[in-house]
Structures are given as structure tokens and as C-alpha cells.
Amino acid sequence: MPDAGPAAVPAPLLRVLGLSKIFGDIPVVDRVTLEVATGEIVMVIGPSGAGKSTMLRCINRIETPSEGEIWVAGVNMAGELRDGRLVPDARAVTARKRRLTGMVFQRFNLFTHLSALDNVAIGPRRVLGMPAAAARALALEHLDRMKLSAHVDKRPIQLSGGQQQRVAIARALAMSPQLMLFDEPTSALDPELVGEVLEAIRGLARDGLTMIVVTHEMQFAREVGTRVVFMDGGRIVEDRPSADFFATPRHERAREFLRRIHGGAAPALTAAGPPPG
User: Which of 48, 81, 147, 164 has the fewest CB atoms within 10 Å around its CB?
Assistant: First the structure.
């Protein structure tokens, strides 16, 4: 019987090749290349202005890249290649492709006049064409997943910031994305509400959902992330397994960043957790 040879390596769920986004003369994202496999949880960290959020917005096609390629589940998010040339998509095609990704923003962006249930059900009903009863059932399922079953009829103003963010997560999940993108999902929350949102994301990680999370929560990044991507000046400076990055960051800029985060303490985060302060 002939040797079958080595097993084929699955293609990455996300492939970013030479991505740049230039505003005026400033490259906010500068020739970034990144791959994310199915089931990975990639934590993106770095100083303000490093290009982290802009990179996510390009992946989700909220921003149009200045150059480079973005592939999600084998789909070219920027357009179609014809005779070696990239032909940009029509707006409707871009909207359809965007369903491959779910985006959770710093601000919750909920419809203030709708209940939590209707905020989650509106996407499956209007975008996916799901019957109203099925969309409501799906919304109830995801709100329960976010531990919000007691709040389904409340409007955003009746919910805490943490509850609103969990509604936003349920809304993104209801569209059945293959890749979830979180853009600093706790930055707009009071400190006492941060934990409930991080725990919701932990639950998604346990379920095996593929995620990219831009965060300033270092302990969360160390515990939950399979990889850490450290960005500075629009570029990826380090990309390593989380435990390795926090134990021995290789790049001086990463070491400096961690020292500042931890009040001048040594950057290493050991198994016992981060240094106090």
C-alpha cells in the first residue's frame, strides 16, 4: 500500500498578507502579516496608537485597506482576483462577506429603542432572512448563553454597561460568524463590571470559538490567549505563545510596555500571576 505521506496542514481561518492602512501620509497599520488557525484565541496588545483597532476594522471591512490581502475561510474580503488583478467588491458583496466575522466594539452600539431580545434578533431576521419566531428563539439562546435570560425585555438604558456589552456579544454570535473580533471590549466599562464581560469571553474560548481580542487586560491575555501579538507603530513586533511572551518578551519595546503596565516591576508574568500594583 503506498505511503499516504504527511497529513495536510489545514489552511488558516484568517490570513492577512501585507496589510497597510494609511490616513493622509501616516501608515496606521504598516505591512502587517498574520495568520490565525481555527480555534486560536489571539490577544493583540500594545500602546495606544499602535494600529490594533484599525487592523481589526480592516479585517471586518469597516475600513478599506490601503494595500494587502485579507482572507477569511478562503474568501478574499477585499474583492475578487480576475486575471491577476483585484477587483473591489460591490457594497452588497462586502456586506455578505462581512458575515464571516463578528465584531464587538468598545462602545456597545445597541439600538436604544429596542429590547435586548430585539437587538439580537434583528440581524438574523433582516440580514439572514430568518423567520421572526426562529430569530427570536435564536436570540433567546444566545442571551441565555450570556446569562441575560432575566433581562431580555429590557432596553439598553435599563441595563448596566456590562450587560449591554454582553447583549452586543450575543448579537454578534447570532450571525454565526466563523471569526469573532473584540476591540477593547472592556475599555468603556466601570472596573467592577469588567469581570463579567471577560468571563463571557472566557466561556466562548472554552467553546472553541476562534477569536482576536484587542485588550489592555494583561492577566486575561495571559490566561485565555493561545497567542499574543504585540503591536507598536503599526507593525507586529512580537507574535508568540502567550506563556512564552509574558515569561520572556524578546523585544525591548514589549518589555518596556509590560514594565509600564505593571508600575516598573519586572515584565515576567509567572504562573503565580502578575506582580502586584
Answer: 48
Residues 213, 225 contacting (CB under 8 angstroms)? yes
Give me the numbers of helices (H) and strands (E) for the chain, helices first please.
Answer: 9, 12
CA distance 226 to 134: 35
Q: Which of 178, 262, 173 is nearest to 222 (CA)?
A: 262
User: What CA–CA distance (Å, rounded) separates 247 from 224?
Assistant: 15
Taking the alpha carbons of 261, 266, 270, 276 in that order, is the dihedral positive or negative? negative
Tracing cell 439572514 back to the chain, one arrives at: 128
- Confidence tier at 74 by pLDDT (50, 70, 90): very high
CA 237 – CA 252 distance, rounded (Å): 10
Q: Where are the beta strands (DSSP E) in 85-160?
A: 85-88, 101-104
Please report where in the chains the cell 439598553 appears, as a residue: 156
Q: How far apart are CA 66 and CA 123, in angstroms?
A: 29
Q: What is the pLDDT of residues 4-18, one digit of tens each?
A: 555 666 789 999 999
Max CA distance (Å), the chain: 67
Q: What length is written for the chain?
A: 277
Contact 89, 78 (CB under 8 A): yes
Closest CA to 54 of 84, 86, 30, 24: 30
Enter the C-alpha cell of residue 170: 450575543
**Grid cell locating 209:** 470559538
| 113-130 residue pLDDT tens | 999 999 999 999 999 999
pTM of the prediction? 0.88
> CA-to-CA distance for 185 and 143, rounded, in angstroms?
17
Grid cell digits, residue 145: 448563553
Beta-carbon contacts of residue 227 (< 8 Å; ≥ 6 apart): 40, 41, 42, 43, 239, 240, 241, 242, 245
